Amino acid sequence: MMESGFHGCDLDDSLKCKLEESGTQNTHSVMEKAAAWFRSRSIFVVAYGTGCGAIEMPPTFTSRYDAERMGVVGVATPRQADLIILSGYLAYKTLRRVIRTYEQMQKPKYIITLGSCPINGGMYWDSYNTIKKLDDYLPVDVSVVGCMPRPEAVIDGFSLLQKRIKNGEKAGWEKYDENLDFYKKNQKRVLGNHVDPSYETDWYNLENGSEV
Amino acid sequence: MIFQIILLIMLAYVVGFIYMGLYRNITARIQGRYGPTVYQTFYDSIKLFSKKNSVSYGWMFYLGPVIMATGAVLTLILVPVFSDSDFLRSVTTQGNLFLLLYLMVLGPLGNALAVGTGGNPFGVMGVVRGLTRLIGLELPFYIAVVGLIIASNSSDIVHIIDLQKTTGLNILVHPFLFIAAMISMVGFFGASPFDIPGAPQEVYSGPRTEFSGKFLALLMSQGSIFAFAKLVLIIDLFLGGADSLWMLVIKTFAIFITIIFIGIVYGRYKVEQAVDFLMKIPTLIGVIGLVRIIWFG
Amino acid sequence: MNSIFLLLNLLPILFLYQFGGDLHVSLSLTKEFTLSLSQTPLGTFFAYLSLISFLLVTIAQKSKKTSFSYYALQFLLSIAMLAIVLAGDFITFFIGWEIMTWSSYFLISKSSDIDTKSLQKYILFSLASAFSLIAGMVIAYSFANSFDFNVIQNSFHTMPFNIKVALIVLFSLSFFTKAGVIGLHYWVVDTYSKAPDLFSSILSAVMSKMGIYGLFLVYGHLVGYAELKDMFGVILNGTDFGYVLGWIGVITSIIATFKAITQDEVKRLLAYSSIAQLGYIIAVIGMGTSFGVAGAMYHTLIHTIIKLLLFINVAAIVAQTGKNKFSELGGLIYRTPVSFVMLLIGIIALAGMPPLGGFASKFMLYNAAIDSKFALILVGMLFSGAASFLYCYKLVYGIYLGHPTSKDLETQKEVPISYLIPQVILALLLVATGAFPGAFIKVINPILIEFSLNTIPYTSMGVMQSAVGNFNGLFIISAFVVIFVFILLLIWRIKSKAKNNLNRFDISYCGEVPSKNTQLHYGYGFGTDLYRIKFVNAILKRSSSPFYEALATQTKKTAGLLSRMYYGNIHNTMIIILLFFSALYFIGVN
Question: What is residue C34's three-state secondary structure?
Fold first, then answer.
């Protein structure tokens, strides 16, 4: 089990790294604390089966390990989801869809990755069409390591995420908002200039003063 | 009266959410899982209300869930909850059983407009499946309701409840109608085998596909209020209503757990299979009960 | 020109308002033939219904280029209908009926997309209806020695039983054809869908109601409901006659509802929906109870309002976009929002949903069935109502929701105001009938007295009273509004920031991004599920057209045989003519 630390800085030297270390408290009022507690108790998951880790998700959610007892339950659409599980290596093609899905999710939203590949490329470290480190493209909240992680480990990942939500720690989506330039630049580097449909990137590009 | 209505809505909200939680919990236990707590749906709802944003495709999309919730609340206040008290009696006498039959569909149709505006073809597919299923689903329920109205010669629910004190409970007097109505009820609760409209493997979540955040939360809340209203309607019609809160809970729970037990053991019918089935066996059972009332009653 | 005819259309209404009430005029042509107008409460109701409909449609015609002859024919049609509903004898009735047939025939032929076959269908069925009517008239005359309605009414009970049955069947067939009962509906759909767009509203809303008026006239006035009961006996709590008619109506309604769902053309859907709604009216018209008559009357009113509203709405959209198919329309909601709201009100009422007038009429219909204990007929009506939700949704989705299916739909503007004025008036009427369902009982009660039936208790405007429960329309609609506003405010206050007006392509689409070429409108796929349901498939794959096609072929062959006489060998023709006359001679001698 490894807590993702958002060490996105070393990849792109030209970008001034603004990423903060995790652990910052940002809950203030009682209402927000209560909301954080409820958020931690109820997590809707859209399980994006990339790579081989998809096989670990059915046992996690069904009778043997039963993630539903922690309030973690699968949903079908990104609109309803709080959490996206990315279960393995991501090819560039997959990344495009994952970014799309992630941006369709409603805030607050979280990412859990399974296995080594999204952390450092794993066995695909020298592949020509997979990304090595997902954290450069999307803000990963929890990385569950192992090749592949057992359902127990996945559930441990859930409980870690729940703990962090409950404590009101700064989550990935806030970092994504704050460092959008960084993430978009990295995304564009591998996916080309038009990563998303124009209506989705409009707001991004216009804020930065350039035309699509 | 306003106070009573708010009290009733809160009661329905709480009881409905606990029942929905029980639904998930009992389902889990039957599947050999530990399952979520009974408050889980409540947590879900609060969480969705506290989402930081929720998308909308324009004003019709915004109003759809509101219409649906209005339909549910209106249904709730028009169903007599307690049989022997004048709790909200002045409101429930303003409507009748036919009105309720139509009010029950008003909400889903209002929401269908929002789904159409959302522009997701999967959502519309879900709506069309739901409406097609409704053709079959309503048939046994209509037969049961018509049978009761003719048997008690009134479409006033209070009158139907009162009549059961002298003639005996309708579940015993008209068992065929009860069976027909219960099979429909399984579908109204979205339980298997009639849960095709929102089949996640085929059409995302069907009508709910594009709803997020507070809209989804509103849909969930109205769902539990509506579930409570439907349960109360069934016990009013067939179990002689409830004269106290405890009887209310016991009777509604008995109906509810029956629906869970039926729903949990079945797979999912395709929409044409569902309608075919509903047009055959439950309809036949209902017609037997109806003919019994008209010709031999 | 429009304003001239607007005033001209206003004249009969003012005339009726000023001099109406107890209008009795007669004009003796010969000793036996008298043309007479005699106003009854029933006739008054239908007169106002049709005249106001014509007025509203004329308003809508303002922005559509319409020729003088069109207006004149339409005015003639309205006068013909006035003659029908005010007629005091069969001669006047029949003259009005024929003028109605011919003027509407010319009006339909003015449409750009009409074909000869549809026109022939319309005129043939109209003629069949008229022949059936005239046969009934003549038989009635031969027994009563008068064409006057009152005389026929008084002498009806003296006629032999089989003559009574023949009269009822002949008149019923005639008026069923006009109303489009299943089997006799062959002309309805083609005519409604191919007629000029605004004239379709007259056809569906008013002209079909002339059939209903005829049925009321025969069952309630000429024959009398008491006589019907005596003639045919009693089943359950109603009459045998009403039971048969009930099943005819319910089957009409169910079949037409399923057919409506699978149509791709907007006006064809509305045409089938008309047939289905008239099926409801026919289902209760023969029951012979107060609620039966009241239900039929109420539904006549509501259906007229709804169909005028819907057809005018669709006509406006067709005029604006030039498209009339669900697979070609879509996504107009934010381009034409007022039209959308109007159509929405129309379909809420069409589906019979509570806050609007549609529920009040449905409630009356159901009460009629309960009153007679016709349980299975009631179930059939409810079932058809449940199925009608599908076509109601298809109507609103196919035109206004979903995605635009072509580029020009994305830049549409709101329809001209002249189309919207009548729609707003009609929508307000629907809201008013929903809030004050009891008000119409005051109109119905004189008609019930005319038919010598018990009146329906009237308590207040807002309350609909019935034998088996009542409902308070005013309470329901105000409770609905209050709860709606309350929930809206609640959801508005919740701080979850709603990202409004998302791009229509920004949908959950499995991570994919739909493009402008992706087929996202579901207008065409609607109702295909139905074909896989055995029972519904059995209905959908059957059609009355093979029967009528075969009839047409056989008639053509017979006619071909006859025409051979003229075009074949001249000797044969001469021999046949000789034989014919000698046969006539011998018959004459004997």
Answer: strand
Considering just the CA atoms, what is the radius of gyration of chain B in Å? 19
- Give a yes or no: residue A16 inside a domain: no
Determine, for residues C373 and B150 on separate chains, whether the beta-carbon distance falls below 8 Å: yes
Each residue of B145-174: pLDDT tens digit?
A: 999 999 988 888 988 998 999 988 999 999
Model pLDDT for residues B109-128, shown as the tens digit of each residue: 888 999 998 888 888 989 99
Tell me the sheet residues that pair with A143: A2, A113
Q: CB contact, 8 Å: B105 with chain C?
A: yes
Which residues in chain C touch residue A39, judged by CB atoms under 8 angstroms apart? none
Chain A CB contacts of C510 below 8 Å:
97
- Which residue range(s) make up the domain with B270? 2-296
- In this complex, the residue of A77, A98, A100 whose CB is nearest that of residue C513 is A100
Instruction: Output the six-digit token pair for C547.
Output: 């029967």
Report whether pLDDT(A8) > 50: no
Of B144, B72, B80, B134, nearest in space to B103 by CA: B72
Which range marks the domain in which residue A50 is found? Answer: 28-207
- How confident is residue B192, by pLDDT bands cut at 50, 70 and 90? confident
Give the pair of three-digit tokens for residue C391.
């076509």
Read off the pLDDT of residues B91-113 as tens digits, 9 standing for 90 and up: 888 888 999 999 999 888 888 99
pLDDT bin (cut points 50, 70, 90) of residue A97 is confident
> Which candidate in B38, B51, B125, B218 is best for mutational testing of the A interface (most A CBs within 10 A)?
B51
Structure-token pair, residue C79: 């006068």
* Residue C539 CA from chain centroid, whole number: 22
pTM equals: 0.92
| Beta carbons of A139 and A172 less than 8 angstroms apart | yes
Quote the ipTM score.
Answer: 0.94
Q: Which two tokens stand for residue A70?
A: 């922690």
**How many CA within 13 A on the CB side of residue C20?**
19
CA distance C547 to C409: 40
What residues of C are in contact with residue B113 (Cβ under 8 Å)? Answer: 344, 396, 401
**B126: Cβ contacts below 8 Å, ≥ 6 apart:** B115, B197, B198, B203, B204, B205, B206, B207, B208, B209
The answer, yes or no, to whether residue A206 has pLDDT greater than 70, is no
| φ/ψ of residue A43, rounded to 5 | -125, 120
Element (H, E) at A201: helix A198-207
C232, amino acid identity: F
Measure the CA dihedral C262/C264/C270/C272, to 10°. -40
Residues 552-571 of C with CB under 8 A from A: none
pLDDT at site C504: 81
Is A135 inside a domain boundary? yes
> Which of A48, A84, A90, A101 is most worth mutating to test chain C (most C CB atoms within 10 A of its CB)?
A101
Q: Indicate the average pLDDT of chain B.
A: 90
- For chain A, the domain total comes to 1
Residues 6+ apart with CB under 8 A from B19: B224, B227, B228, B231, B252, B253, B256
Asked whether the predicted pLDDT for residue A18 surpasses 60, the reply is no
Question: Nearest CA to C335 among C391, C407, C270, C277?
Answer: C407
Q: Give the model confidence (pLDDT) of C60-79 as tens digits.
A: 998 888 889 999 999 999 99
Q: Which two tokens stand for residue B184?
A: 């429909």
The total of structural domains in chain B comes to 1
Among A97, A199, A200, select the one facing C511 at the smallest CB separation: A97
Closest C-alpha among C333, C383, C386 to residue B115: C333
Residue carrying the six token digits 């004003």: B59
Q: Count of CB atoms within 10 A of residue C500's CB?
A: 12
Question: How far apart (Å, rounded) are the C-alpha atoms in residues C187 and C183?
Answer: 10
Q: Which of C370, C400, C484 sits opposite B66 (nearest CB)?
A: C484
Query: Shortest CA distance to C34 belongs to which of C88, C104, C102?
Result: C88
